[in-house]
Each structure stands twice: as C-alpha cells, then as structure tokens.
Amino acid sequence: MKLLKILIKTTILSLLIFSVANGGIANTKHNLSYKANNNIKSISETEICVFCHIPHDTRPGKPLWNRSMPNSSYVMYSSEYLDRANYPKAEQLGTTSDEPGVISRQCLSCHDGTVALGKIYMVRGNILGNSVIAMSGVNADGTMPTTSNAYIGTDLSIHHPVGVEYNPNISINFNTGSRSIELKNTPNSPIKLYEYGGKNYVECTSCHDPHSENQKFLRVHSGANLAQNIVNTCTSCHDKIGWDGSVHQSANHLYTDPNVLSKYGTSRVADLGCVNCHTPHNGEGKPYLLRKVEQNTCFQGAANSTTTAACHGTGGAKDIQSVLSRSYGHPVNTIDGVHTNLDILHPRGEKGLNWDQAKHAECVDCHNQHQAKPGTHAPKGQWYPNIPSNRVSNVLKGVPGVEPSWPSRWTQPTNFTTLESADKEYQICMKCHSYLGLGVANDGVTNQFLAKEGIYATDQAFEFNPNNRSAHPVVMPLNQMSGNYEPKALHPSQLKPPWNANPGNQTMYCSDCHGADNEVGGDPKGPHGSSHKFLLKGENNYWPLKPDGTYYTVWDDIAWHTNDKNDGLFCRNCHNIYADVPGGASSHRFTFGGMAGACVNCHVAVPHGSPVSNLLGYRSFPEPYNFRDPNTGELMLKIDGYKKAEPNYANINVRKVYSTHPSCMGTGQFTGSCHGIDDGGYDSVP
Question: Which pTM was predicted?
Fold first, then answer.
C-alpha cells in the first residue's frame, strides 16, 4: 500500500512536471534542476516543479505549496503621497492561505534571501526535515546571493507594493477640483488581482507569471520589446491623467547609452515611457519607484550616466542639470524624498513646504511629469511671450497650486484655496514663496535668511496682493487692482514690446523676470538656475547694483535719447525709463538737477509690490525693501510721502513727494521744480 501511494504521488507529480515544463518553465530561471542552463541550480535534483509544488501534504500557501515559508518581517512600501491620499496601507504579508500577501511571501521564500533555495518540505514522498537540496550558485547557507538580479531582500519599500489593496475608488479632494488615484476600475488582462475578504489585492503574481517563458516573467509579453512590455504592464493598471500626448509619452529623443538599447530593445524616450523614470524593483529614489533620487532621475533616466541620457542632464535634450548647478537657483540637491504634490492639502508646518524643516524644491513641485507637454509661454529664441499672460504654459500643466485669499493692503495672506491644477503660474510659485512655505512675515519680511543673496526672504503673496497700491501685474491686470490709484497702468510709450501692446489689461509671469542666463541662446527656459543674483533674466541682469558694486542712478544715462541702451539695469528689459508721455515729460528725464540719486532712493529694492504707488518706498520701510548700502551701511530710501499723478499724465508736478532729501526736492536753481509740495495726499502713512 505504501509503495502504491508513492507511485501515485510520483505519477501525479510527473504529470504536473510534464504539463508545466511544456508550458515553458524548463527554459526559465525558475528551472532549478541540475540540467538547467542557469547559474543557480541543484547539484543533482532532476525534478523541476518540486522546488515549489507537491501534489499532496502541501504547506501553507497555494497552489500545492512545497516550500518553507520565510519568517521575515518586511519593510513595506509606503509613500507620503499615498498617505496623504488616505490610500489603504500595505500590511505585513500573510503567512497562511487566504491572507493578503501570502502569495508574495511564497515568492519571497526564494527571493528575500532568508530561506535556502533547496529548503523544501518533501521530495517523492520523503520529508526532508532539516535537510536541504544541495544547490550551486548560492551562499554557503543555501540562500540567494545579494548580487543576484533576482534578489529582493526584506526591504520592500524599494519595490512595487504587494499585499496591498487595489482600490481605484480613492479620490483626492482639493478646495477646487479633485483627482482620482489614477487606477483603472479593472486592470487589463492578463494582469491578475487576488480576492481576500471581498477586496482585491496586488501580489507578485499580479504582474509576473512564474511559469512563463519570457523576459522577467511578465504576464504582458506581446510587445515588440521589453520596454513596451513593461509600459503595457504599468498601464494595465495605472491610468495617468494627461499621459497620452505628454512629452514623456511622445518624445523622439534617443539615449546614446548602448546598455539601454541592449536591455530594453529600444533607446527612444517615447518607447521607454514609464521605464525612463521608474523601475518596479530596487528603485534608489524611494518612494515612487524612481530609478534615482528625484532630480537625478530627471537628469539620468534609464541610462548609466547623465552624459548618455536623452533627459535633462548634461547630455540630454534640455540640460537643466547644468543650469541648476549655477550660483543661484532652486535648491533641488539639499533634501531628497520630502515633497509630494499633495503638500498643500495639509497645514503649514508639516514636513514638505515648510522652509524651517525642508527648504527644498523638487522637479515635481513645478512640473507634472505625466501631463507636461512641449512648449513654454515664450517662443524659442525669445525672452518674452508674444502676448503677455499669467496662464500656465504646457510645461506646467497639471500641477497643484494655491490661490491666496487677499486681505487688506500690505497684509500677509494666510488663507489659501488649494487647486487640483493651477491655472496661473503664480499659483505654483506661491506654494512655497508665501506664508505656506516661509511662515510669518512682518511688513512683508520673513525670518528666512537667503545666505547667497544676503537678505531675508520676502513673502510674494504679501507683495502681489491686488489691494496694494502698486505691484507688477502678476496676479491680475493693473486696471483690476482694487488698491491701485488712477492712472493704474503706465502709458504704452513707457514700455517696450510686448508689454506696450495693452498695458493695464495684461498680466505677466514670475518667470518673465526670473529665469536662466541665456534663454534666447539655448538655456532651458524657466527659473531653474542662473549666474545672476535673484535669477534675473533678460538682456540686463543687475539690480540694484551694477556689476562693479555701485548703484544704478538716473545719471547713468543722462542723455535721454539713449533710451534703448542696455547698460545692465534690469528695469530696462521692459521699461522705457526716459520715455515722454502725452502732455508731459518723464520725471526721470530731468537729471540735470537734484534727481541724480540712486534708483533705490525712491523705489523699493524688491520691486514685486508696495503699499505706495509706482513701487515707491518710504524711509521707514524695512530691509530688504529699503536697500542697505553694502559699503557704508546706509539705508537708501529717502522719501516720507507721495501722491500719485493725475490721470491725464499732464503735469509731473502733481506727483507730490514729501522729503527733505535733495535728490527728491532738487538743489540750487532747480529747488522745487521736480516735485510739487503740499500738505496732504499720502498714498500711505509715512
């Protein structure tokens, strides 16, 4: 009877072996028999299926499981994005049948490196007990070497999550708009989910068929190459909004790294798709399965170096890496794994936006890599757009943002409406350059010191508040600013193209002033990095000091007919400083008398906005609005009060300045000829 029982077991197992072997496993890495053409294999065992399966007396796990289950406690995959989306967490993998993660634990009985590969329960009716099948290509204790490409380990945080619920019904709600978790309701076939307790779960075998004869055991293997199979596997579940037609889905740039072509069967960015940035296993840039830490993934992609990548590194189609390494720029290299694009959903002070804890910027703070499309707001070869606007350009599509609730004049906004997708560029910038990132600002100035610039950072939401007396038209057109006195806009003659087309009714970007050194000559557009302080861009890059460290003054161009001269003064990029207006002449034109002082004797040195008209500032203003002479320590603002011109521009003398300083009031024969004097009409309390 015993002999008959053994014969029956052997026959059944032989039939199983024959069936699976004909299915392709004999030609895969999962053939551990001694006849296999693999580095890791048995020294003498001839059976194939026995390393995982047995027809009778099975162990916990299925189907017909024969291996010893690992006792490992795993570091499970997690991410702040999933946490902030309230997505169900991946729990410890199950140890018995019908527990979430048990099938993945079965796979890890070889791949986590804690159980000998030859540690199975029974061979041909013989219980091995403490014995193991002798293997070659393994560690001395029979476990999988850490150098093997198949080694997973016990840290599952760098691998695609397993033992985790598949829940496409999660919704992430913003004050304005919402987004799904971007999972398909049902994965495309042949991806497989596993049901436990009425819920669907992801296991290793959701994507991998351990018996399939193809690269990486992928269930999806009908593509032209490995890259396409991986992409088709990813998109069987993940339904990224805006992916079709995005730059990473359609770019024709080619990697020059030969390893990319040999490994994936293609070197074209569009063909590689998800593979450019993500890897399902052993991602160095955790979380999010990034190939490298955030910015290095953008620089290097799937290549072994940035110089052979078709991405944003030194050898790429748009070399942003080099621009970011310049003297001034967004600090992408200071902290890794901090931000998510859901940070704005949580109170100020939590890790992410807060400069006190995490002064940092990630590429994904400003760009949505799945939705970005080619095209900036300024055409190639131009500093500025043809039609001024503050609407997000193609490269900024799909990025969350904030809209401040605007308080009274020169007051800090502390309440914000969160936006699923920013509609305007400043809504992206103000995620960090406002109370949300900078904290409390007193009179516009925060306690965040900018060491390279030598000043304390100011709150841009504070400065661009439409209730202020003056501001550059970043938030809204000047004619719509409630705090702005008439005339709200400059006359067209005072502006250069394209800003002279419709002044007062147009807006502008933050990146019209801040950007790279040479955006017309090949630098990637945008405020990534610059050799110029404050990332000032354009033909003129200096303010308020000249390259030699002295001030720009109205004496520098005393002959007003040199209005088009480029002398480095940043304001000249957009403004005709000495232009006359109908019925009068520019006040800057009268340089023969007392108006020979520095520009910062009258204007705030941070020219975003002011509680005074025309971006003027009073001597009572704090630094850095009140610029301090680096040589003498003197604060430069000299005026105490101001009254704006009448709407018809007719008489410059109705611009009232209240000051005892000669640079404002004139000296000698010109005393009083530049600015009229009366006893009222301040824009704000001095």
Answer: 0.89
The residues that bridge with 65 in the sheet, in sequence order, are 53
Is 169 in contact with 340 (CB distance < 8 Å)?
no
CB 373 within 8 A of CB 406: no
Give yes or no for a cis peptide into 487 (omega within 30° of 0): yes
Q: Where are the domains of the chain?
A: 1-167+203-212, 368-538, 541-686
pLDDT bucket at 59, cuts 50 / 70 / 90: confident
Yes or no: say if 77 and 287 are a contact pair by the CB < 8 Å rule: yes
Exposure of 303 in the CB half-sphere (CA atoms within 13 A): 26
Q: Please tell me the distance from the alpha carbon of residue 238 to that of residue 230, in angstroms, as a whole number.
A: 12
Evaluated on CA atoms 553, 556, 557, 563, the torsion sign reads: negative
Is residue 417 predicted with pLDDT exceeding 80? yes
Closest CA to 191 of 209, 179, 167, 176: 209
User: DSSP letter string over 597-651?
Assistant: SBGGGTB-SSTTEESSGGGB-BTTPPTTTSPBPTTT--B---BSEEEPPPTT---
The closest of 145, 92, 147, 93 to 116, measured between CA atoms, is 145
Task: Please tell me what DSSP assigns to residue 340.
Answer: -
Report the alpha-carbon distance of residue 203 to residue 193 in Å, rounded. Answer: 7
Sequence letter at residue 153: G
- CA separation, residue 260 to residues 15, 273, 308, 310 (Å): 41, 13, 10, 11
pLDDT of 581 > 70? The answer is no
214-249: pLDDT as tens digits: 889 999 999 999 999 999 999 999 999 999 999 999
Full DSSP string of 504-541: TS----GGGTB--TTTTTTPPSSSSEESSGGGB-SS--
Interacting residues of 282 by C-beta distance below 8 A, sequence separation 6+: 158, 159
The predicted structure's pLDDT at residue 649: 42
Identity at 594, one-letter amino acid code: G
Question: pLDDT tens across 295-307, in order?
Answer: 999 999 999 999 9
pLDDT score recorded for residue 289: 93
Q: Phi and psi at residue 335, in whole multiples of 5°? A: -140, 140
On the question of pLDDT at 603 being above 90, the answer is yes
Half-sphere CA count of 73, side-chain side, radius 13 A: 0
Q: What angle do CA 144, 257, 38 make, to 5 degrees?
A: 25
Distance from C-alpha of 273 to C-alpha of 103, rounded to nearest angstrom: 29
Q: Which residues of 591-612 are buried (b: 16+ CB within 10 A; e: fewer)?
A: bebbbbbbbbbbbbbbbbbbbb
Q: Is the peptide bond before 100 cis (omega within 30 degrees of 0)?
A: no
